[in-house]
Amino acid sequence: MASTSDIRKGLCIRYNNDIYKIIEFLHVKPGKGPAFVRTKLKSVSSGKVLDNTFSGGSKIEDVRVETRSYQFLYAEGENYHFMNTDDYNQITLQESSLDAPDLLKEGEVVTILFNTEDSMPLSVDMPASVILEVTYAEPGVKGNTATNATKPAKVETGATINVPLFINEGDKIKIDTEKGAYMERVKE
């Protein structure tokens, strides 16, 4: 058993007869009254996200997990196929267990969390950033840069990302997988 002081991003807990992964949390200590923790929980079985508030010091049941590196092979509809980089065993996961499936490129190495009790895969942790090639971008209009102007660009995985006006087709860009936002242009 853990308490609310052990809450951190990525922690898997058992709550309402399901296993949830904490994707956001905020410890709040108001001037009047007891402290509490606001959390955003994502169900690892259904992918549903819910907001919950735990009162300070309350007990939560954490789930022991182990992490393994897997390489993304290909997607087939809602199913995503991964291969263990150590023993080459393959597993198939549903799209709902991925945080950012539209940024996942074939050959990308990800970390998959497994429940140690029954060895069931819980969720997929993407790398902090990915480098993708821009396949389509409107040409930037010169002189249209009074403020931090952006335009939509399509990357090789099919995702659409807002990028600065100087990004063109064929450029490689670094994308923050957590926010799905442009970080920088990558030179070869």
TrEMBL record:
Q: What is its main location?
A: cytoplasm
BP GO terms, sorted: peptide biosynthetic process
GO MF terms, alphabetically ordered: translation elongation factor activity
The metabolic or biological pathway listed in the UniProt record of this protein is: Protein biosynthesis; polypeptide chain elongation
InterPro entries according to UniProt: Elong-fact-P_C, NA-bd_OB-fold, Rib_uL2_dom2, Transl_elong_fac_P/YeiP, Transl_elong_KOW-like, Transl_elong_P/YeiP_cen, Transl_elong_P/YeiP_CS, Transl_elongation_fac_P
- Localisation per UniProt entry: Cytoplasm
The record places domain Translation elongation factor P/YeiP central at 67-122
Q: Where is the Elongation factor P C-terminal domain?
A: 130-185
GO cellular component terms listed in the entry, alphabetical order? cytosol
Coiled coil located at which positions?
none
Concerning Pfam families, the annotation shows: EFP, EFP_N, Elong-fact-P_C
Which keywords belong to this entry? Cytoplasm, Elongation factor, Protein biosynthesis
Protein family: Belongs to the elongation factor P family.
Q: What is the role of this chain? A: Involved in peptide bond synthesis. Stimulates efficient translation and peptide-bond synthesis on native or reconstituted 70S ribosomes in vitro. Probably functions indirectly by altering the affinity of the ribosome for aminoacyl-tRNA, thus increasing their reactivity as acceptors for peptidyl transferase.
Protein name listed in UniProt: Elongation factor P
Gene label: efp
